[in-house]
Amino acid sequence: MQPIVIKPVMPEMLDTLVQLEQQTFMETFGPTHKPDDLAVFMQERKDAAALREQLLLPGSLYYLLYYGEHVAGFLKLNLGKQPDDAAHTQLPSPIELEKIYVLKAWQGHKLGKALIQHAYTIAKERQAATIWLGVWEHNIKALSFYRSEGFEKFGEHTFKVGRQSDTDWLLKKSC
Fold first, then answer.
1. Which of 67, 76, 136, 158 lies in disulfide reach of 99, CB 3.0 to 4.6 Å?
2. Whole-angstrom Cα distance, residue 22 to residue 1?
């Protein structure tokens, strides 16, 4: 087993983050979405300008996971962010786990587990009471992972990929 190291993303690491975000998103959702919708989404949400803006937002925390010498995954947390659907009750002292991805080539090495453990550590350091996320209702592998981590469904929201509207399940867990 190779060493696992998780590092905060610095602005000078933007090119690595862009490549990783684009590749993991296409590996995960490319087979299930129309090419035109994916192209729009990638341009609007995964290009260098969009990711630079996200990286510099107050309360936005990005981390890269290195498996040995390889950049193999990443994590994005949002401090204090509530779910965007006003129909949901406000969560106590929340932290959003917005993104957690591992490159397909490195899946099966417990790297997702390392990333989520890192998210729990940050949540505790920041005194969050609740960690929450949105996950596509048809992403069975991710849903199974989050259930095994003790997350419970508390709602749903719409996630747009181009013109396609997907339903994300909102899951939460006490820290």
1. 76
2. 26
165 falls within a domain: no
Across-strand partners of 64?
7, 74
Angle between helices 14-29 and 48-56 (to 10 degrees): 110
- Structurally, the chain folds into a number of domains equal to 1
| Residue percentage of the chain with pLDDT more than 90 | 91
Q: Which pair of structure tokens corresponds to residue 31?
A: 């087979």
Q: Which residues are within 8 A (CB) of 170 and not within 5 positions of it... i.e. 6 or more apart?
A: 83, 85, 88, 132, 133, 134, 153, 154, 155, 156, 157
CATH of the domain at 74: 3.40.630.30
Task: Please tell me the predicted confidence (pLDDT) of residue 1.
Answer: 79
Q: Do the domain assignments include residue 67?
A: yes
Name the pTM for this structure: 0.93
